[in-house]
Amino acid sequence: MGAILLRDDQVLLYAYNRHLPSRDQQNELGDPRCFFQSGEGIEFSSSIHAEAELIASAAKMGIPLEGAEMYCTTFPCPVCAKQIAAAGVKRLYFATGYAVLDGLEVLQASGVEVTQVIFDDAELAQLREEQAKSSKAKDCYQL
Length: 143
Hints:
two-stranded antiparallel ribbon, globular, single chain, CMP/dCMP-type deaminase domain-containing protein, zinc ion binding, alpha/beta, CMP_dCMP_dom, Cytidine_deaminase-like, metal-binding, about 140 residues, six-stranded mixed β-sheet, 8 strands
């Protein structure tokens, strides 16, 4: 899962889901999420979600998110949806995902415009190819 923040068509930050305290955490100890269905047991993950990392990094760097746009590969989990709403993000775009609990309702009630972006197979293949070529995504970056 990856996410990117923009304001006025300028990239602010981008991030991806990663395990803490190290990237190899799930390989060393196993990932507790393996025992749950999609959308269940989210609180048992050893990872930080891309959306949460973006919001935390923006706060750490003093980057205001009021009015920003967020693009996510997957619809945010309920916890991240609440963080997005509280951060003042104006628009959220996502490609795929699940809506569990109250994530969509929280976003909409907070005035966040939510839009699903649907790609055709050729577009998805191109995006995957570009992603495979990119070796830059190591941590949360400011561009």
